[in-house]
Specification:
This protein is of the alpha+beta class. The chain is 30% helix and 14% strand. It is built from one helix and two strands; from the N terminus they run ββα. The protein starts with a strand and ends in a 5-residue tail after the last helix. The relative contact order is 0.15.
């Protein structure tokens, strides 16, 4: 598993620590492609600001936590 971003949030949903790593360029491809992972002909999506990125990550984790609590039942509280 590769981690490219690491976030720590406080109980008030504020991002208190953020660290990002960039992936190493692969030397196996013959021509460099700045849009790795996207099919040919698809435009690169607009980059999010750091604040928007942190909000999306927090929302995802918050939603997953609530889903796990609902699926887990009364013993997991």
């Amino acid at each position: 598993m590769v981690v490219y971003s690491f976030y720590i949030f406080d109980r008030h949903a504020e991002c208190i620590y953020k660290k990002k790593w960039t992936p190493r360029p692969s030397s196996t491809s013959s021509k460099p492609n700045q849009y790795d992972g996207l099919p040919e002909g698809v435009l690169h999506p607009k980059a999010l600001s750091a604040e928007d990125d942190a909000k999306l990550i927090f929302g995802t984790i918050f939603s997953l936590r609530n889903m796990v609590r609902k699926l887990g039942g009364p013993d997991d509280k």
